[in-house]
Specification:
There is one protein chain. The protein is an alpha/beta fold. The protein contains 7 helices and 7 strands, in the order H-H-H-E-E-E-H-E-H-E-H-E-H-E. It has 2 domains: 2-44, RecR Domain 1 (Helicase, Ruva Protein, domain 3, Orthogonal Bundle), CATH 1.10.8.420; 54-188, Dna Topoisomerase Vi A Subunit, Chain: A, domain 2 (3-Layer(aba) Sandwich). Helix 6 (138-150) links the parallel strand 5 and strand 6. It is globular and about 60 Å long.
Length: 189
Amino acid sequence: MIYEFNKLPGIGPKTSEKFVYFLLNQPREEIDNFVRALNDLKEQIQVCTTCYNFSEKTPCVICGDPKRDKTVLCVVSESGDQAAIEKTGQFTGLYHILGGAINQIEGVGPEQLKIKELIGRIAANGIKEVILATNPDMEGETTAIYIAKQLESAEVKVTRLARGLPTGADLEYADEMTLTDALKGRREV
């Protein structure tokens, strides 16, 4: 079990041991609930066919919300980034989750991401603005520049989140105020 917990991102051997000893001290019912929740995760959660976020249904709640601004699309690398922006309550448009960022060292190129789907979605849905909200690190910047170049001929305004997020940080861990400022201060690419 310790070995399995070690596979989780950010979890080292000591934390894995703490998890295992904690679980060993739980009643059987709690362990059964935990196992059931893990199984439900794979059985009940799917990928939205519109934005590629994890959801219990497709389209997801955000894509299916008639109150959302369907002309503004915020492009993020991962689902956690979308959740972080959504927590601010400042963005009322739609999202597009790429499924990662370009990282040639790890063999992740544009073809492994949902960039082709993004371009098709922009063309088919009357999107007026695309906000590139990838992380402000090397991979995020590379991804944003690549997407901006792909959209040069499209009749769409392309913006980038304003600085204010520290370089090398992950959107998922940024506080709501920093993300709010970054959304309000985005700039055209």
